[in-house]
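Email to the structure team, subject: RING-type domain-containing protein model.

Hi all, the expression group asked for a predicted structure before they design truncation constructs. Nothing fancy, just the tokens so they can compare against earlier work. One-line instruction: predict RING-type domain-containing protein, return tokens.
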Amino acid sequence: MPAARSSRLTSRQLSAAPYSTSKHAPPDDADIIILSSDDESSSHTPKNSLPKRHRSITKQKGKAVIPPSADILEISSSDEALAKTCRASMSRDSISSLRAQLKKAHDEIARLKAESQKKQAQQTRPSISLSELEELVTCEICTLKMWTPYTLPCGHTFCQPCLTDWFNTTLAQHITNNPHYNPAVVAALRATLNGPNVPAGLRRTYEAQIALLEHQHPPPSYTCPTCRTVCRTKPVEVYTLKSVVRNVADALSETSPQKRTSTPAARTRSGAVRAPEGPWDGFFPRG
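Reply from the structure team: attached below.
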């Protein structure tokens, strides 16, 4: 430490002395003493104090290593445009595929929904068995299928053979109880009355004769076999029910029997047999 003080005193003395104006040469660098404080940190060493070789190595560490030119992939603007086009094409294809799949899924859903509604309708729809349907088209009298069904004014329906037999039985009983009853006479008078060019006087005569004959020999009362309602008009054939009967028979592998007609024989004034025009003309003369 005494050397440091002497150095400071020497420096002060030198700084206090006036600059010499002599023409002597400046002192050498070896004769100059650099004063520094003991408290200064060594970390404030100027950068220029580092050796040149050390500084060059430090600079090289901060630089990135340049790869060889063979490893560099050059991308031009045309390549970027091609890549964008490819991506756009792939995107369009993907969207089209998704739309097709979505449409297919919607169609499948619609098909399944329609099938479900159809099955539900079939389950809720009232059904009837073939045996029940066969019972509905069966005649109450003969318990056979009504191949030729006829409906009476009361609404009951029977097959033609059964109704014919029923009316024949009624007519036979009436003739037995009224031997002078002759329906052919009244039928002939009515036919003449309904003819063309009948004079008014003759028409009144025929009407009076018909009324007298019906009063003296009233016609039989044909009734319904079920409810006994008097039938004043001819039975009417039900063609719709006739078609249903044939469909049921086809389902049961049955064939329609040969049509049978049994109507009473009507007679003219001379007593000749006159074939009726319809199956019920012998029971209900046309008036």
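The two ends are 170 Å apart (CA to CA). The chain is about 50% helix and 5% strand. Ping us if the truncation boundaries need rechecking.
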